[in-house]
Amino acid sequence: MAPKKTLEDELEREIIQLIATDRLYIPISSMGGKLERARPKIAKRINLKEHENNFIGERAYARIESEDRKKAKGIKEGIEKFKEKFPKYGKILEGYIEEKRALSERHLYFGTMPNCKLTDKDYLKVMTDLGFNEGTAKSLYPELMDISRKLSRKRDEERSILIGEEEKTKEEKK
User: Fold this and answer.
1) pTM
2) Alpha-carbon gap, residue 79 to 96, rounded angstroms
3) Secondary structure in 3-state letters for 38-101
4) pLDDT for 107-138, tens place per residue?
5) 163, pLDDT greater than 70
6) Taking the CA of residue 123 as centre, how many other CA atoms within 13 Å lie in the half-sphere pointing to its CB?
7) What is the C-alpha separation between 141 and 135, in angstroms, rounded?
8) What does the domain layout of the chain look like in residue ranges?
9) Which of 117, 116, 110, 118 has its CA nearest to residue 157?
């Protein structure tokens, strides 16, 4: 008979899943940011002038189209124009914009115990939950962990995550 799981076991399993998820998020997010910055740079290097802004190759195609659009005024520019026309109300509007809500944030701090490590099974579970099949998860795991270890040298081990925020009441603001 399998040992009965306690609430503490279930809680620790959830915490371990959060830690594994967070550690995988870091390298994937970093890669996503690099890709996001690379796309416009690559796109700007593509010159289609010789092809009349329309290229069709064996494996890829590209075209450039121009579209006229009216661009909305920026918020600051709109406020300045409003203040010129309605100075009294402009000051009131600026006051509303400057006013900040007092918020109470709730964070969950988490990490591993000293000398404890997550297993490859912990990480592979998160990756398969993301939609990777088991083979792909196993092949990606070493590379992601290598990147994660390199990035983790640049940050503290304890991590936190915002789990809620509430607007403070008038009494709490005092």
Assistant:
1) 0.54
2) 12
3) HHHHHHHHCCCHHHCCEEECCCCEEECCCCCCCCCCCHHHHHHHHHHHCHHHHHHHHHHHHCCC
4) 677 788 777 788 899 999 988 888 889 999 99
5) no
6) 21
7) 10
8) 74-103, 104-162
9) 110
46 close to 154: Cβ distance less than 8 angstroms: no
Taking only the tens place, the pLDDT of each residue in 11-57 is 999 999 999 999 889 888 887 888 888 888 888 888 888 998 888 88
Contacts with 54 (C-beta within 8 Å, 6 or more apart), sequence order:
48, 62, 63, 64
Q: What amino acid is encoded at 167 in this protein?
A: E
8 Å CB contact between 53 and 63: yes
